[in-house]
Structures are given as C-alpha cells and as structure tokens.
Amino acid sequence: MYENQSTKAERKRGLSGWPALVLLLLLSPLLVPLIIVVVVAWVTGALALHLLTLIIWLPAGRRVLFVYSNSPVWKPHIEAEVLPRLPSTAAVLNWSERSEWSRRSLSVWLFRFYAGNREYNPLAIVIRPWRGPKLFRFWRAFRDSKHGKVEPLRALEASFFQSIAAS
Description:
This protein has 167 residues and is of the alpha+beta class. Helices cover 54% and strands 10% of the residues.
C-alpha cells in the first residue's frame, strides 16, 4: 500500500528531474530574451524615476519621503517624535489614507517602486543625488519596541536623521 501511495504522490508533484530540465532547455531561447527585456525595463524605470526625482524634488529642497499609518503601535510616537523633526519640505504619506493618494504623485510612485511588499510601513526614503535612495524600514524596530526593546528603534531613528543631515 505504501509503495502505491508513494507513486501517486510522485505523479501529483508534477515535473521533476530530467523532464523539467529538458523543458527548461527547450524554453530557454524564449525565456532568456524575455528576462533580458524585463531587467532592462526595470533598470530603465528605476533610472527614470531617480532622474525625475532629481529634477523635480531637489530644486525644491525635497529629499525625504516618510510613510506611516494610523496603527496604535507607532502613530503616537511618529507624530510626536518623528514628524516634527522632518524637514519642512519632506513628503509624508499616510498608508491608512491611501485611497485618497493621487496616482500622479511622485511621492506615491517612489513609495510603490521602492517599498516592496515587506515591512513597508512605516518607511522612510532619503533621496541621495548621485547614489540610489536610502530606505529605512521601521516596522521591525517598532515591533521590538512594543516588546520592550527600544534600542533598535532609537538606533534606526538616529541613523535616519543622520542620513537626512548628510544629504
């Protein structure tokens, strides 16, 4: 009985071993150009977004994007300790109000491009002219702070504000 079940389980898993390798080799002439096109498009988009940011934001003195939400874990701290220390030109987005965000906003484009899908809230992006932007992901530091470990949050905030002063 166990042998029969093992054979059925192997069949259910799909392609494995040499058939998958053969299929990959047969499809590679189609996949390689597609992968190249995707990579070139992504790099071009990243460069265009960075250039657009340099052209629009830097002359206005804007170098910081800060995104947070109305979470009770961090909202009181952010509104009391972080937002007042941001430069007056900083862009601030509230994730809880994202339905009201303009799709044409450069701040929203930057957030969506760089934030990714992990630990994206709260998040700070500091634009550096001749290098890529520097991201500060606060989620984990706030999680640790909630459990009594405040040092990671203090260190991240210090690094963030130091980065703002240096750029």
